[in-house]
Write a structure and sequence with these properties.
The chain is α+β, with helices and mostly antiparallel strands and 83 residues long. The chain has one domain: Beta-grasp domain (Ubiquitin-like (UB roll)). 27% of the residues lie in helices and 24% in strands. A five-stranded mixed β-sheet has the order 2-1-5-3-4.
Length: 83
């Protein structure tokens, strides 16, 4: 299982902050995002390609081809701004 965390506006829009998800057959960040997008229109729109959000795996910034394995923590969040 993967522990998937949703932050900020994604958490508010999708109505979930954390969940456990089976490791997808295509065990990459892109594969996980594709599975999440298939949950329906809200998910597809919130996680659409080209939207501004970031993904971290085990607290390290990840790319679409980053491999996933059981026990990984995946965080999905909008870009952070500071001042």
């Amino acid at each position: 299982m993967l522990k998937v965390l949703f932050f900020a506006s994604l958490r508010e829009r999708l109505g979930v902050g954390e969940e456990s998800i089976p490791v997808p057959a295509m065990a990459t960040v892109a594969g996980l995002l594709n599975i999440l997008r298939q949950r329906g229109e809200d998910w597809a729109d919130a996680l659409a390609e080209g939207k501004r959000w970031r993904v971290a795996v085990n607290q390290d910034m990840a790319q679409a081809d980053t491999a996933l394995k059981a026990g990984d923590e995946v965080a999905i969040f909008p870009p952070v701004t500071g001042g």
